[in-house]
Amino acid sequence: MKKLKLSFQSNTQAGIKPENQDACGFYIPNSPVLDNKGIVAVIADGVSASEKAKDASTCCVKSFLSDYYSTPDSWSTEHSASKVISALNNWLHSQSVREQEHSSMLSTMSVLIVKSNTAHIFHVGDSRIYRYRDGKLKQLTQDHVLHLAKEKTYLARAMGFDLKVHVDYYTTKVKLDDVFLMTTDGVHDYLNDKTLCSLLNDGISADELSEKALAADSQDNISAIICKVEQLPDENLSETFDKLTKRPIPPDLEKGMKINGFEVESLIHASNRTQVYLAKDSQTNEMVVLKTPSINFEDDAQYLKHFMYEEWVGQRIQSANVVKTHNSSEESKFLAYAMEYIKGQTLRKWMQDNPQPDIETVIGIVKQTIQGLRAFHRQEMLHCDLKPENIMINKIGQVKLIDFGSARIAGVTELISPVAAVGNQGTRGYTAPEVIINEKVTQASDQFSLGVIVYEMFAGHLPYQDKLDKNLTAKKLSQLAYESILKHDPHVPIW
Predict the structure, then answer these.
(1) Higher pLDDT, 488 or 103
(2) Which of 117, 226, 286, 331 has the fewest CB atoms within 10 Å, i.e. the most exposed one?
(3) In the structure, what pLDDT confidence band is assigned to residue 448 with cuts at 50, 70 and 90?
């Protein structure tokens, strides 16, 4: 599994001034802190008019890098950072009040937190954070300054200025090779955006950038952090939901209609919950199965999360024995996703056509089904709804698992909690008892379902008939009796 990787360069110097009142720093933690908290960079510029400008900026950087990582993992990034910034501001302000000097400890502060595929930005003052992407530079923060006279500005917000601080908060999606530039005014007041863009395009280092600012006659302290995105992890569920919920549910589709880069060929199946279409990729002409949610549930947040969850799971399973789920384009306008089109039949239909299968054929089907399940288990996922209707066999006998709506992610409660309320417990007769009675679900739960299917393929009925239903209790479970398959088909070997 890919991990987030960022590379950093930084430089801070006094410039022509006798003392450096800027500060900057960053921290790259190891897993699992990396996954829970992300990577942080902070830049601060102590207000020259304050008596302890250097102490203020240093405190902002060091305290945030320390305290942010001490917040509970259950807190969101916004909540964690906001709490730390508020406490830090209160402390700086208290020092000013205690020393009877309102401006004794003031500083700007800009924070960049990259967590998974999202950049979180917290900003107070006139330091800046830019993003350089595809040859273009964009300023992500807004300068908190007042223009009271021609070519004269005054700082409108600063850490420690008042008991409460108003912090700008932004989020933005991160892409591979993005470069984030963080600067104090000793850099961006003397190097304009066009110059900065050109320098970043040339791959300038933080040290070289500071020298460029000095050469441009910078009259202030000079600080810069250059952060490049070297590798991105897969999106987590929260990010996927945030992105996809902004897309509207499409109307009922008809032949010839185009949606998200696909042209509809025909309707395969429709229910009150979903529509499934045969469609063609407009660029490759590849046939796909297109699944859309029902307009009846456009206000049902849990339903929509469950729909998106199925796509999210499918995109993370790579196996010849699991139906392929295509990645949605960033340009997709509607809530829908495409899957591999399988020309074949369900295992249920195959079982109806082959009521007395030979052992070798069954073994071949089971082996491929196991390979599909292993693909789930390697990702610490469980299918949790294995049944003949969710196993496809194509024209050449290749087995593919379908339908991930009940899948569970072992040990990652935070990720599955958005859809936990859906409460899908699989299908009666095939679902493992521990799933029904809400005990711990493991890989053995999928293995149980596969065992039931194999039993049914030979015996023609389920091993426990209708006794594994939603009314099952631990007491009833202890009373269940297994009837050997050999009673129904003596030709089955004792495995």
Answers:
(1) 488
(2) 331
(3) very high
Report the alpha-carbon distance of residue 39 to residue 36 in Å, rounded. Answer: 10
pLDDT in tens, 355-406: 999 999 999 999 999 999 999 998 878 999 999 999 999 999 999 999 988 8
Q: From 129, 123, 233, 225, select the one nearest 174 (Cα to Cα).
A: 233
CB neighbour class for 213 (10 Å; exposed up to 12, middle 13-18, buried from 19): buried
- Protein fold of 344-487: Transferase(Phosphotransferase); domain 1 (1.10.510)
Q: Is the pTM of this model over 0.70?
A: no
How would residue 423 be classed by pLDDT, with cut points 50, 70 and 90? very low
CA distance 291 to 404: 13
* Residues 6+ positions from 422 with CB-CB distance below 8 Å: 302, 303, 305, 306
Q: Which residues contact 68 (CB under 8 A, 6 or more apart)?
A: 37, 40, 80, 81, 84, 113
What topology does CATH give the domain 238-340? Phosphorylase Kinase; domain 1 (3.30.200)
Contact 143, 149 (CB under 8 A): no
Q: Judge contact between 58 and 43, C-beta under 8 A.
A: no
**Average pLDDT value for the chain:** 89
Domain boundaries, the chain: 5-233, 238-340, 344-487
* Sheet order of strands, 109-115 included: 22-27, 39-45, 109-115, 118-124, 168-173
260 CB neighbour count, 10 Å cutoff: 21
Question: Which residue, 37, 208, 15, is CA-closest to 116?
Answer: 37
Domain 5-233 has CATH 3.60.40.10: yes
